[in-house]
TrEMBL record:
Alphabetical list of InterPro entries matching this protein: NAD(P)-bd_dom_sf (IPR036291), NmrA-like (IPR008030), NmrA/Isoflavone_reductase-like (IPR051609), PCBER-like (IPR045312)
A single GO molecular function term of this UniProt record: oxidoreductase activity
Domain NmrA-like, chain residue ranges per copy: 7-260
Tree of life domain: Eukaryota
Protein name: NmrA-like domain-containing protein
Keyword Signal: no
Organism: Daldinia eschscholtzii
A Pfam short name: NmrA
Keyword check for Flavoprotein: no
Keywords, ordered alphabetically: NADP, Oxidoreductase
């Protein structure tokens, strides 16, 4: 059975930050990854003028758009009709709604495979992971799956941080680290030599397609994948090389990250999530002896290098 999948794919959150890359990769995959690809979205997104270019380009390649309310069970049941594989790219605010989507998938007569929205930090990296606040909704989804799903098999694509987002310097969270091309300034955590595993956003799409192409190895698995491993200082060096100028580098002590992180959580400031994730990444929470890239048939040469992401950031296309 597994080798016949996927045939009829439904994507949630297709026009979101990472959903765009995943949907693009699925729609553009050669040879086709499935015979039919649909997205489920709200009427507001489907009619949003800013989303028309991407929706039209997908539709011209055969993608179907199903509109409905994510919280309406009948809308989901109708959307699942004939679907065998679901790829969820829902955003953080909608992660908990996946529990109902999974329940309805289990009840449906056709859905067999489900990719919950992960595409980020490893939420079961070590014993401390279970207490990290940003992980809680994804952990609840995994727990629901473990305890309730029998027919539907799930695949989690764990990519670590997106290099494109890491390369930006959020004005409201400078101590959390980042890179500002305009002012040639970087803020790095600790001494800047700590290794971090990254995935580029186009590579997230490539990795999801590879997982879809290899149900025999990816079904029921937590896939730990990434584009490359580098350090904050190596990123500075790449920016200096590509901009032909020396950058100013500020350091945020690791302890300072923890202090600001606690302050932000105590103040209920949503930026706290960024501090927690950056602290986890700086402490090595993205590193593996071996990733699952290879079992998906991907070699280091298939993945984007740091230089490609830095090039996009320097040219303003990041
Ligand atoms: N590794 C990293 O560095 C990193 C960074 C960011 C996110 N992530 C992960 O990637 C996944 C997707 O995040 P994202 O930032 O791409 O998501 P996003 O852009 O915030 O949202 C994705 C889509 O989810 C749907 N959605 C969002 N909020 C909703 C709500 N309240 N009700 C109904 N639908 C809602 C929308 O779908 P429509 O398009 O249909 O309207 C939206 O486009 C998450 O698991 C997140 O943790 C990882």
């Amino acid at each position: 059975m597994a080798s016949q999948l996927p045939s009829n794919v439904l994507i949630f959150g297709a026009t979101g930050a990472i959903g765009k890359y995943i949907t693009d990769a699925i729609v553009l995959a050669k040879p086709n990854v499935a015979s039919r690809v649909s997205i489920f979205t709200s009427p507001a997104t489907a009619s949003n003028p800013d989303k028309q270019t991407i929706l039209s380009s997908w539709k011209s390649r055969g993608l179907s758009v199903i509109t409905g309310d994510l919280s309406n069970a009948d809308d989901i049941r109708n959307a699942y009709n004939g679907i065998d594989t679901v790829v969820s790219c829902l955003g953080r605010n909608a992660l908990a709604s996946q529990i109902e989507l999974l329940k309805l998938a289990e009840e449906s007569s056709s859905v067999q495979w489900f990719f919950p929205s992960e595409y980020g930090t490893d939420i079961e990296y070590d014993a401390s992971s279970k207490d990290e606040k940003p992980h809680q909704n994804k952990l609840k989804v995994r727990e629901y799956i473990r305890e309730n799903l029998k027919k539907v098999k799930c695949t989690y694509v764990v990519t670590g941080p997106y290099i494109e987002m890491y390369l930006t310097l959020a004005p409201a969270a400078k101590e959390a680290g980042g890179y500002d091309v305009k002012s040639r300034k970087a803020v790095v955590i600790g001494n800047g030599d700590g290794k971090v595993g990254f995935t580029s956003m186009p590579d997230v799409g490539k990795l999801v397609v590879a997982a879809l192409r290899h149900p025999e190895v990816s079904m029921g698995k937590v896939l730990k994948v990434q584009s490359f491993v580098t350090t904050p200082n190596e990123i500075v060096a790449e920016f200096e090389k590509q901009t032909g100028s020396k950058w100013t580098v500020e350091h945020t002590p690791n302890q300072k990250i923890r202090e600001v992180e606690n302050e932000k959580w105590n103040a209920n400031d949503p930026i706290a999530t960024l501090y927690t994730l950056r602290r986890i990444w700086a402490e090595g929470g993205t590193l593996y002896d071996k990733t699952d890239n290879e079992i998906l048939g991907l070699t280091p040469g298939d993945m984007e290098p740091l230089s490609a992401a830095v090039e996009r950031a320097v040219s303003g296309k990041g």
